[in-house]
Specification:
2 copies of one chain form a homodimer. By secondary structure, chain A is α/β, with parallel strands linked by helices. Helices cover 37% and strands 26% of the residues of chain A. The first copy, chain A, has a single domain (2-299), classed as UDP-N-acetylmuramoyl-L-alanine:D-glutamate ligase. Chain A contains 11 helices and 14 strands.
Amino acid sequence: MSLVVVGSMAFDAIETPFGKSDKIVGGAGTYIAWCASNFTPVKQISVVGGDFPQEELDSLTARNVNLEGVQIKKNEKTFFWSGRYHLDMNSRDTLVTELNVLGDFKPEVPESFQDCEFLMLGNLAPAVQLSVIEQLKNRPKLVVLDTMNFWMDVAMDDLKKLLTKVDVLVINDSEARQLSGDYSLMRSAKKILTMGPKYLVIKKGEHGALLFHNNKVFFAPALPLDEVFDPTGAGDTFAGGFIGHLAKTKDISFENMKTAIIVGSAMASYCVEKFGTERLRELTKEDIAERLNEFVQLVHFDINLV
Amino acid sequence: MSLVVVGSMAFDAIETPFGKSDKIVGGAGTYIAWCASNFTPVKQISVVGGDFPQEELDSLTARNVNLEGVQIKKNEKTFFWSGRYHLDMNSRDTLVTELNVLGDFKPEVPESFQDCEFLMLGNLAPAVQLSVIEQLKNRPKLVVLDTMNFWMDVAMDDLKKLLTKVDVLVINDSEARQLSGDYSLMRSAKKILTMGPKYLVIKKGEHGALLFHNNKVFFAPALPLDEVFDPTGAGDTFAGGFIGHLAKTKDISFENMKTAIIVGSAMASYCVEKFGTERLRELTKEDIAERLNEFVQLVHFDINLV
C-alpha cells in the first residue's frame, strides 16, 4: 500500500492585505506532502532546481515523505510564482510566473513507487498528470485529480482525456461551471459525473465543499475564521487531507469520503492561518483532533423526524 | 402559550429569468404565517386594504392563523411591491413600491394576544416593530427580529434601540457587515452580539446560514437545488420555520435553535421552487419530514477522533 503524490515544488512570493512574504517554499506537491504525511507515508514525484533548499528536502524526508521520485536539476532553477491577493482574499493577481524546471517536466515513476494504491495528481499540465498514470503497471485503487481553470483554457482536450482515467475530481465552483458550461452547480455536477470521475468534489472556499456521487450529495462547511491570513495552498492542503485520510484508512466508500472531506477542510483551515506552509509545519496530532472536533460541533444537530 | 407574528401582508408582482407572476399575495407576514402554521397556531398582526382577497384570509384562518390583529382598511389599498430578479437570482431591482396601508401602519395588539410567549417581528420599520413589544404587558419568552439593509440606511437609531429588546436577530451576510462595519463575518457576529441580541442568525442564501451564541457557532447548509425558481419570501419562510419549530417545542436552548435553523432552511428550500407562496400552500407533513431527512443526509458524517 502506498500513496503517491505528483505535484509542483516551488518558490512563492506572496502579498496579502496583511503583509508580504519572502521567497518561501510552496507548490501544490509541497502542500499536499506536508499535509498528507500527517496521516500516512508519502511517495513524492516532482522536480526542483539546484536552488531548492536541502533542509526542506530533509524536513520532508523526516516526515516519511519518500523523495526518490523528485528530480533535482542542479543547474536549473525551481519554479517560481508570485501573486498579490485582493482585499476580499477571494481573488488574486499573478505578478510573476517563472516555469524554470517545470517547463519541460517529465515525471518518472521509480520502480519502488509501483505499489501505488492511492494516486494524488496535484495541479499540473493534464499531459504531465496523464504520463504518471500511464507509467503505473497496475491501476491504483483510487486516482484523485486536482486541476484548475488555466488548463480548461489551454488544454481542455488533454483534460477531458485525463478525466476518463480518474476516480475523483477536485475543482472549485467556477471551474465546475466552466467545465460543464452550466451555471447551476447541481446540474454541473451531474454533467461532470458523466465525463469520467465517479466522485466530484466542488470547493467553494469560505462557503465549504460539496461531494457528489451518483445521486448523493454531501456538504462540508468551511470553518468560520476571524481572518484568512494567506489562502495560498489551501486547496492543495484540502486535497492532501482528503487523500491522506483515505490512504490511511484504505476505505474508499462514500461514507468515508465524507469524513475525508472534513479532514481536508480541517487541514485547509489551519493552512490559511499563516504564510505558506508555516502553519502546517507546526501541527500536532492534538491540533488536528481539536479542529476535527470543532467541525463536529459546527454541523451537528438533532432532529426528531416524527 | 402563543406565537405572535407581525409582518406585512401584500401584493407582489415578480419577474425572474423563468417568467413573470401576476399580482399575487405576498408580504413577510404572509410567508411567515403560511410557514409557521405548519408547526403551531399563529396570532397574526398586520394591515391590508379592502382589495385584499377574502379567500386568502379564509385560507389562513383555516390553518389556525388567528387574524384578530389584522386591520382591514376597507377604503384603502394593500401594500404593493414589484421586482425583477437578475440572472444569478442573488440580486434584484425594485420596480414599484406602493406603501398604501403600510404607510401609516400602527399595529394594535388584541387583548387575546397578550399571552404571547414567542414574538416574531417580520421585516418592517423598526419603530413599528418596537411598538408591538411596547404593547405587550409581559415580556415574551423569545423575541426574534428580522430586518434589512434599508432600515440600516434610513432608521439606524431606531434599529439600534430595538436591538436591545430582542433575543434573536436574523439578517443576511451583507447586512451583518453593514451593521457591524466589519468585513469578517466572525468579527461582525461578535460585535452584533454586544448590541443586544443573545443569538444571531446570519443567512448566506445558497451558502447556508450561521447561528452564533456566546462563543458557539453552528452552520446549516442550504439544500443544493437544480434551480431556484423564485427567491421571494425565502428569508421570511426561513424565519417562519425557525420560530415555528421553537414555539412548537417550547425549547429555546442553543441545541434546539440549531434544529430550528435546519427546519427554517428546509422550509425555505421549498419556498423557492415556485412563485410566491404557491409551494408553501401545497406542503404536507410528509413533504416536510422528507426534506428534513435530506438535510440530515446532506451533512451527516462519522469521525473517529482517536
